[in-house]
Specification:
Blueprint: H1 8-11, H2 16-33, H3 45-53, E1 72-75, E2 90-93, H4 95-101, H5 106-124, H6 128-149
Antiparallel strand pairs: 1-2
Helix pairs in contact: 5-6
C-alpha cells in the first residue's frame, strides 16, 4: 500500500502568513459550501452496533476502546457539507476525538497534525519559543478543565 499523496494546498505554502491565509481560505470555503437545513436523523440501536463493529469497538482516530454506550457516531462526510445520516457515512469515535475533529476538512486536519507533531518535537528539544507556546497551551487547557468543573 503506497503512502497517501500530500494535499496540494499545504505543499504550496512558503511562509507563516501563507499558512494563515490558507487556513482562513479553507474556513471560508467550508462556510460558503455549507448545506443549509440538513435534518439530522438518529441512528437506531442496530445501526449504532453496525457502526461500532466497523472498527472492532475502537475509536477510528485514536484507537481507544469504546463501547455501545459511550461512543460518538462521527460523520465521514460531515452533515454540513451534505453528508448523509446513514450508517455507511459514520465511523465510531470517542467523545474527545469527535469533539476536536469538528467538521474540519482533510486539509485542515493535516495542517493541525503536522503543526502538533512539529511543536511536540520542538518542545522535547527544549526550544524557547516552543516552550513558551507549550506554557500557553497548558494555561488554555487548565482554563478549560476549570470551566468543566464548575
Amino acid at each position: 500500500m503506497s503512502a497517501p499523496p500530500e494535499l496540494k494546498l499545504l505543499r504550496s505554502i512558503k511562509t507563516g502568513k501563507g499558512l494563515q491565509k490558507l487556513i482562513k481560505s479553507l474556513k471560508l470555503n467550508l462556510k460558503e459550501s455549507k448545506v443549509k437545513e440538513v435534518k439530522r436523523k438518529a441512528l437506531t440501536k442496530k445501526q449504532r452496533e453496525a457502526v461500532l463493529a466497523k472498527t472492532d469497538g475502537r475509536c477510528h482516530m485514536c484507537g481507544i476502546e469504546i463501547d455501545i454506550n459511550n461512543f460518538h457516531a462521527d460523520h465521514v462526510k460531515s452533515h454540513i457539507t451534505g453528508g448523509v445520516h446513514e450508517a455507511n457515512n459514520y465511523l465510531p469515535s470517542c467523545s474527545t476525538c469527535n469533539n476536536l475533529r469538528w467538521h474540519y476538512s482533510s486539509e485542515e486536519i493535516q495542517i493541525i497534525l503536522k503543526l502538533g507533531r512539529w511543536l511536540k518535537t520542538r518542545v522535547t528539544k527544549e526550544d524557547e519559543l516552543a516552550l513558551t507556546l507549550a506554557n500557553e497551551f497548558i494555561k488554555h487547557e487548565m482554563t478549560l478543565r476549570n470551566r468543566k468543573k464548575s
